[in-house]
Design a protein that fits this description.
By secondary structure, the chain is of the alpha/beta class. The chain has one domain: Rossmann fold. It is built from five helices and seven strands; from the N terminus they run αβαβαββααβββ. The model has no long low-confidence stretch (mean pLDDT 92). Bound molecules: adenosine-5'-diphosphate (ADP) and magnesium ion (MG). Adenosine-5'-diphosphate (ADP) binds next to helix 2 and helix 3.
């Protein structure tokens, strides 16, 4: 069971939950979503290990004009992808202990400039997230019976 039709008509509602059956559908949703992003937007990706945060960033990079390799910056904390019109900043804060470590790599400046920020493990720096942001929440509702199924909640926060 999935929300194929709903994905195809994705509009920018404030809070929407999508059920997808497999990774290709996750990617389709991500492509629809990214088409509506503006320069400077910040996207926080919540979800346990293996729920597909990096997979979504990988799907969103080509529509933004970056055709290269996308992998979790687990060790470097930040990958910068030079896309056609703007830079993509891909953060992964899984390994940090305190939020100051994000500030040390210039997080504050990156979220304020015109590039697009994707942030894995935003819970680690929750107080540093800008008020205006997108949140994507990934869950695996039934790993035993539907290991590739995901629940994907997209929320828009604007002050
Ligand atoms: N519906 C789905 N959406 C996203 N990824 C999926 C889906 N079904 C299976 N997968 C797999 O789950 C894994 C997600 O890994 P990854 O994106 O690295 O997760 P995370 O970054 O959240 O730790 C990948 O191996 C991907 O192929
Ligand atoms: Mg990841």
């Amino acid at each position: 069971m999935s929300d194929t039709a709903k994905i195809q008509t994705l509009e920018y509602r404030r809070d929407e939950v999508f059920t997808v059956a497999d990774e290709s559908e996750s990617c389709r949703l991500a492509e629809r979503f990214v088409a509506g992003l503006q320069p400077g937007d910040v996207v926080a990706l919540f979800g346990d290990l293996g729920t597909g945060k990096t997979a979504l960033v990988r799907a969103m990079a080509p529509p933004l004009g970056y055709m290269g390799f996308v992998n979790s910056p687990t060790f470097s904390l930040l990958n910068i992808y030079p896309a056609a019109k703007l830079e993509i900043y891909h953060f992964d804060f899984y390994r940090i202990n305190i939020a100051e470590e994000a500030l040390d790599i210039g997080f504050d400046e990156y979220v304020q400039n015109a590039g697009i920020c994707f942030i894995e493990w935003p819970e680690k720096i929750i107080d540093l997230l800008p008020e205006k942001r997108w949140e994507i929440h990934l869950e695996v509702p039934d790993y035993v019976n539907e290991p590739t199924g995901r629940s994907i909640r997209i929320r828009k926060f604007a002050p």
